[in-house]
Amino acid sequence: MRFSDEKWRLNQKLVTVSELWHSHFISGITSSISHITQIQLPLRSETPRPLIPARNYTSNGFLRVSCNGGLNQMRAAICDMVTVARLLNLTLVVPELDKTSFWADPSNFEDIFNVKHFIDSLRDEVRIVKRVPKKFSRKEGYSTLEMPPVSWSNEIYYLEQILPLFENHTVLHFNRTDTRVANNGLSLDLQKLRCRVNYQALKFNPQIENLGHKLIQILQENGPFVALHLRFEMDMLAFSGCTQGCTDNEAEELKRMRYAFPWWREKEIVSEERRSQGLCPLTPEEAALVLRALGFDNETQIYIAAGDIYNGEHRLAQLRASFPRIVKKETLLTRDDLQQIQKHSSQMAALDFMVSVASNTFIPTYDGNMAKLVEGHRRYSGFKKTILLDRRKLVELIDMHQNRTLAWNEFADAVRQYHESRIVRPTRRRVILDKPKEEDYFYANPHECLCEERYCHDLLGPPNSGEV
């Protein structure tokens, strides 16, 4: 394969982009917000559907990707990498999952996701294989180029900077995949493909699906429930430097952990400053006050979507006192149910993801990757009730209440008032020119996938530009 001819490059760009516009998947994506329904749990005895016709194209090479981060960071990256492979007419190798992060989860793709469904459901868009054929190995004289693509990149970058690399390399390995595709400024067809991968192709494997369904059924049998994403695990506190309510010994333990991981760059952090800026997850005690102020009573069933809470039941005591009907996956499922996945953080997180998407109300106490992807999933599922907490304002109100300068009624009224506008509704994703890290994340609000362009103005309001 040679790509030196400039005329060929231009033609390749035009062919690649024009093919995308005529993709089969566009007609299958939900066309209007009025047609969006809640995601239905599939029947376990689902009849296999006939395979969709495979797309016929000449592959320009193989794309290997090693996803980094936790489950939801990797999930978004997989969606992005399928899109890149489609744009560049590449053959995608089933993604490799991170095994070296803090969680040290040895799970492979097939341990979490349904790999057959992933390959088959996208065969009309991208050729996906489980491994690079041996004939393209180093032993046969082929070299693999390893590199991380540039963050927040658009189509032009991939067409002009990445595609020509296949002139000399049959296999390209992206060794980092987090946030490597732009939130905004992409073709509508690319944005819709990202949604198709996220909401249709990435199904959890049967074991996780069955456990997730079992959890949801148990919860629903006991009435409506709130999924509280309580991001108060040890790694989160150590990484963020947030030690509100911790003892001196606990704060020192968290600091030692932060120094133990060299890729956590920020070391010296003043917890009080971070908290006042709204950059700390709410503590369980703070979450209890906020839930009460929002009008949830002690009969509310609350599912804690989280890993191990730092200092466990001791830190949950006040939350449990206010809301006795607190449950977790570990209390609803049997030891036998969890035996095979309990030591695999990403597989456990997949259960929390399923329950959070299915909950009557979802409330994240920190806007991390899971919170953002669940928010987007719930938008796509018909705008299920999601409350995005204003942590900066909340800690100010909480401190005033605890200092006895704000009575309970005034505190509760203020919390409700500030959050009337923070219940997720149809809206356009915010764009901040030249500041992609600060603008709204695509997977939190994939508005292009929620309506046809001719309806978007009425539903979402006019497009924004510049800094909002």
Automatic annotation (TrEMBL):
<comment type="similarity">
    <text>Belongs to the glycosyltransferase GT106 family.</text>
</comment>
<dbReference type="Pfam" id="PF10250">
    <property type="entry name" value="O-FucT"/>
</dbReference>
<keyword id="KW-0328">Glycosyltransferase</keyword>
<keyword id="KW-0119">Carbohydrate metabolism</keyword>
<dbReference type="InterPro" id="IPR024709">
    <property type="entry name" value="FucosylTrfase_pln"/>
</dbReference>
<keyword id="KW-0472">Membrane</keyword>
<keyword id="KW-0294">Fucose metabolism</keyword>
<keyword id="KW-0808">Transferase</keyword>
<dbReference type="GO" id="GO:0006004">
    <property type="term" value="P:fucose metabolic process"/>
</dbReference>
<dbReference type="GO" id="GO:0009507">
    <property type="term" value="C:chloroplast"/>
</dbReference>
<comment type="pathway">
    <text>Glycan metabolism.</text>
</comment>
<keyword id="KW-0735">Signal-anchor</keyword>
<protein>
    <recommendedName>
        <fullName>O-fucosyltransferase family protein</fullName>
    </recommendedName>
</protein>
<keyword id="KW-0812">Transmembrane</keyword>
<dbReference type="GO" id="GO:0016020">
    <property type="term" value="C:membrane"/>
</dbReference>
<dbReference type="InterPro" id="IPR019378">
    <property type="entry name" value="GDP-Fuc_O-FucTrfase"/>
</dbReference>
<keyword id="KW-1133">Transmembrane helix</keyword>
<keyword id="KW-0325">Glycoprotein</keyword>
<dbReference type="GO" id="GO:0016757">
    <property type="term" value="F:glycosyltransferase activity"/>
</dbReference>
